[in-house]
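not sure who needs this but someone in the group chat was asking about glucarate dehydratase from Reticulibacter mediterranei so here u go. i didnt clean anything up, its just raw.
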Amino acid sequence: MKITDIKATAVTVPLEAPLRHSNGVQWGRFVRTIVEVETDEGIIGLGEMGGGGESATLAFQGLKSYLVGHDPFDLEKLRFAITNPTASLYNNRTQLHAAIEFACLDIIGKKLGVPVYQLLGGKIRDEVEFASYLFFRYPDEKNGRYEVRTPEQLIEHAQDLQQRYGFTTHKLKGGVFPPQYELECYLALADAFPQDRLRYDPNSILSVEQAIHFGHAIEKLNNDYFEDPTWGLNGVRRVREMVRIPTATNTIVINFEQLASNILNPAVDVILLDTTFWGGIRPCVKAAGVCETFQLGIAVHSSGELGIQLATMLHLGAVLPNLAFAADAHYHHLTDDIIQGGKMEYREGKIAVPERPGLGVELDRDKLAQYAELYKELGTYPYDRDPHRPGWYPLLPNTDGFADPTRSY
């Protein structure tokens, strides 16, 4: 079997409301790049990458000469063809490779008639558990609803998600408002859900000293971990030395060199594996094996997925014996999807691992066309900017730029 072509389509899919984070805002929609890898046997594999828009489409087109004539079964050859370590110094293609790896695994699974998890060693769980992933949110621009700014709104939102989807782990994405205010919100959340597990992620925006203070204030809560409390391995190492909560990251240990450094001089206890950031599903499986050897925790990270990438997260979660934490997903914030059958369903906080060959999802061509047109209409947006705070940009640590929690929009 040989690859004959690659196609990339930029889409934008609406969110229930704009999601605020320490570095900006998801502007009420996700921009994703959908990848289709075609073969001479008529099998088409699907991949997905975050953001990019026109630039990602052109980048995938630029890889066509690397891919045409390549056997999709030769995944290690593919890895070096696209992400040769020396060449990557000039052309970092890790995330592009991830989307193509997804598609190749999809092709292999379809060719062999087996789900991708069978290619990864076989599943040990039928469902993957997810956390609620709570954001501070601007109101929906059309109806002025869905704002999350106050502790009361945060609790109401979490209760609604628990009722609809069954989440029993709650992650608060912070770094938006002053630390003392977010501490009040987090403590209120813990008080409202005394039996559930919690995690807090200020997106690296706190100083080491702010992170230590915050960590001390939440030590007695039912925390999974303290995610990216500050920036850098040494910064997180200092927090870890002072706070009795496991640390976690998806920003400073995202490749094998960083993982080795963290093992030799520990800073992070829980590594958040992202099928895009690590370059594919298979690198995440390898990294999980390293973590198992050295008894580091793992979880599955979300970088803002539609159904194709969610499928990669489910197949990854299905095969990891040391996955002891609920996975992250933005998925419940979406209003729609581009896969056949619409959005996958949560049951008791979990999503079933797809059982059909390959990734187990197929494109809804009408939805793909609809959201490709919406992308052409709305275009992309700067992830690291806030449309309601013109001229603002984040400092790191953020010493002069937290949002005003008393201001409603």
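also The chain has two domains: 3-114+365-377, 119-352. if thats useful
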